[in-house]
Design brief:
- This protein has 186 residues and is mainly alpha-helical.
- The protein folds into two domains: 8-106, no CATH class; 120-184, no CATH class.
- The protein contains eight helices and three strands.
- A three-stranded antiparallel β-sheet has the order 1-2-3, with helices on one face.
- Strand 2 (155-158) and strand 3 form a beta hairpin.
- The termini are far apart.
């Protein structure tokens, strides 16, 4: 907006500085915010210095890059080799007994920042201050009533003869009379 040209890293550094200033000015420091800001700052330093060891156990893309690069180097492969693509997919396999991330985690090679219960809760209980609450309430009622439905980021739809759909554009709106009427109609 002011005519400066910045790299992606410089833009991130600007965002970091603004966020740090906002946190300090508004007294928002908490252990979680401090950990987040520390990791963000170390990530910027690691990318700038090309020393990924600063974040090799905490940042997902670095963990995966190091794994793939080690495998590639040990076997003399190019990045285009299909085995690298296969390993890339295996890294993201969400099955705990198959995913390479989980294997690395079990060996202590990655830092864990959440507990299993927190993950389960996050998957089961939507944030109560966003439209995720509307989606969660709609899905719970539709499943309870054994109704056929379709949901995406912004649409809640009952797949009945009327094809009733509610569009929820505002991500910060956690209450909506239209959604409540749709839920009540089931």
């Amino acid at each position: 907006a002011n005519g400066r040209e910045l790299s992606a890293l410089e833009i991130q550094a600007e965002y970091f500085a603004k966020a740090a200033d906002f946190i300090d000015r508004n007294g928002l420091r908490t252990p979680t915010i401090d950990r987040t800001m520390d990791l963000w700052e170390r990530t910027l330093k690691a990318v700038e210095s090309e020393d990924l060891s600063l974040i090799e156990r905490e940042i997902d893309w670095v963990i995966k890059y190091r794994l793939l690069d080690r495998y590639r180097t040990q076997r003399g492969l190019s990045w285009a080799d299909p085995r690298i693509a296969q390993l890339d997919l295996a890294y993201h396999d969400i099955r705990r007994d198959r995913g390479l991330f989980y294997l690395l985690e079990s060996k202590g090679a990655v830092a864990r920042v959440t507990k299993d219960l927190d993950v389960f809760t996050a998957k089961s209980v939507p944030p109560q201050t966003t439209r995720a609450r509307l989606r969660g309430d709609f899905i719970a009622r539709a499943q309870e009533r054994r109704r056929d439905f379709t949901v995406d980021w912004v649409h809640l739809k009952l797949n009945d003869q009327a094809q009733r759909t509610v569009l929820c554009k505002d991500p910060f709106r956690s209450e909506d009379d239209r959604v409540q009427r749709l839920i009540d109609s089931m």
